[in-house]
Amino acid sequence: MRRGWRRGLSLSVAAAALIAVGAGGAIWWEGRADASSATTTRTQLVAASSGTVKQTVSASGTLSPKNTSTATFGSSGTVTDVDVAVGDKVTKGETLATIDDDDLQDAVDLAEASVTAAEDQVDSATAGTSAAASAQAQLTSAEQSLTQAEQALAGATLKAPLSGIVSSVGYAVGDTTGSGSSGTSGGSGGSGGTGGTGGTGSSNAGGNGSSSSDSSSGITIVDTSSWVVDATVSSSDLAQLKKGLQATITGTGSQSSVFGTVSSIGVVASSTTSGAAQFPVTIAVTGNPAGLHAGTSVTVAITTKQLSGVLTVPTLAVTTTNGRTTVTVSKDGKQTVTPITIGGVYGAQTVVTKGLSSGDEVVVTYRTFAPGAGTGGTGTRRTGEGGFGGFGGGFGGQGGTGGLQRSGTGGAGGFGGNGTGEGGFGGNG
């Protein structure tokens, strides 16, 4: 039981005083836990050196292919073949699926016959007469009907609008399709393309592009040769950003990074987080790195300022007191506090513009918390039968002198029984 008290109990000085009053008002606490002894201080010499420092803005977002297209049939009919599956690689123009085209072929044959008949009427009509004008009008109409019939026939074969990977297939053999519509909306990364024959719709991502085609009844292809990150930044960071800034992109849980550049910056807030407005930013990934996957959550460090060839020291080595900035220089075993002029703080590194030279060794002091390394305070008996033992510093520590005793001599830290008690509040850390 005594061991459990040492491990689990942590009370403030005020709480100890309150306990004393509860015991009958006969005991007053006087003492101090040595909190400073719960830390370990160590020093290291680090040479000032010339290097590169960066100032960055952090953002988070999602990795996605720059170009995505959902292809739908441009004609109505029954699906007879589906030639691809999710994950297949396809090239632009490759056949993805077909519908029954017998009726469509018949319509083309009929339209061709109409054109032939209209041409014969034009040839037989006397030039300049009303009959000739009528025959020419009929030929023009027949040719338009043939063009439409040929387009409908072409729409029976669904072809890949771009090269890439099939990400979804919404058709199965036996499905009945409607006439597809084409058209897209472009996102912040660029303007959307337009659909061609066969009801193909494409979306140029880089933003929030989306196709008007029904992806549930189409075949979607993603172009994995180019990627973008759709990210957001807070309003406080927005003013630092501009197109063309370099960025480092790291996937969640990944140890490797890829690079990119800011391609667009939104001016209308897309969301709010904890009351702060978030603005959309698109980063175009440089090249086509291997191992990228659509939908991956990423963090982005956008470099807003970079200095090369500057003299730096660890920021922990720098002290500023009353407007005077100094470092401690160690030379030949002697330490000297040296005033310096700094050119900026960049995270763990500080740029020094005056007061040091490359190779000068500065003292870096590290303080780390050391659980259980504290020393117990001292309890003082004022009145009554015995004072509290002091609290152990840190997580425990050796109990102080004195104890709440009923008879006999004062215990060594804690609620002593008869004789001498150990542990309690000031137990071994």
From TrEMBL:
Superkingdom, natural source: Bacteria
An example molecular function term from Gene Ontology annotations: efflux transmembrane transporter activity
Coiled coil in keyword set: yes
Keyword Ribosomal protein: no
Transmembrane regions listed in the UniProt entry: none
Boundaries of every Multidrug resistance protein MdtA-like C-terminal permuted SH3 domain copy: 310-364
InterPro entries per the UniProt record, alphabetical: MdtA-like_C (IPR058627)
Ranges of Gly residues composition bias in the record: 180-209
Coiled coil: 132-159
Region of interest (Disordered), ranges: 177-217, 399-429
GO cellular component: efflux pump complex
A Pfam family it matches: RND-MFP_C
Keyword terms, alphabetized: Coiled coil
Entry protein name: Efflux transporter, RND family, MFP subunit
Lineage: Bacteria, Bacillati, Actinomycetota, Actinomycetes, Micrococcales
